[in-house]
Amino acid sequence: MCRDTRQECGSFCHQTIVTKIRELLLLPQGWVTAETLAESIGVSRRTVLRELTAAKRIDPAVVVTHIGGLDAAAETTLNLPKIPGGKKRIYTHLTMPLIALTDLRAKGTEDARYTALADIVDAHNGL
Q1: Which of 26, 52, 115, 120 could form a disulfide with 57 if both were Cys (CB 3.0 to 4.6 A apart)?
Q2: How many CA atoms, within 13 angstroms, populate the side-chain half-sphere of residue 112?
Q3: Of 2-11, 36-45, 67-76, which range is least confident?
Q4: CB neighbour list of residue 24: distance below 8 Å, 6 or more residues apart
Q5: Could you tell me if 117 and 110 are in contact, meaning their C-beta atoms sit under 8 angstroms apart?
Q6: What percent of the chain stands above pLDDT 70?
Q7: Where are the beta strands (DSSP E) in 1-127?
């Protein structure tokens, strides 16, 4: 079975994957990782995540817990297992330390830009 994208799989294979994912979504709810789901139907985790997002079963934005600029990328990468939370989003066009989204408001006392970012995050349900 194909492993990754629609371009590699073709429409028939893609439809088979989508059908299998939808069948699995009908099973009783529980904690199932994308990796487990991918292994059970023989596709990549990326394919599972893409299809779950398309089916509006998950919102991938909620897994981002930290943001930072390019200057934070190296240290973040080296310390990734030690940093709690989900995904760390690095903006390559910014100079900014790695900051948890939940800490933006507190950092706003040091720099008004963080308060503005906290307002944006709050306006979008923590995203």
Answers
A1: 52
A2: 0
A3: 2-11
A4: 32, 37, 40, 41
A5: no
A6: 78
A7: 64-69, 87-91, 99-100
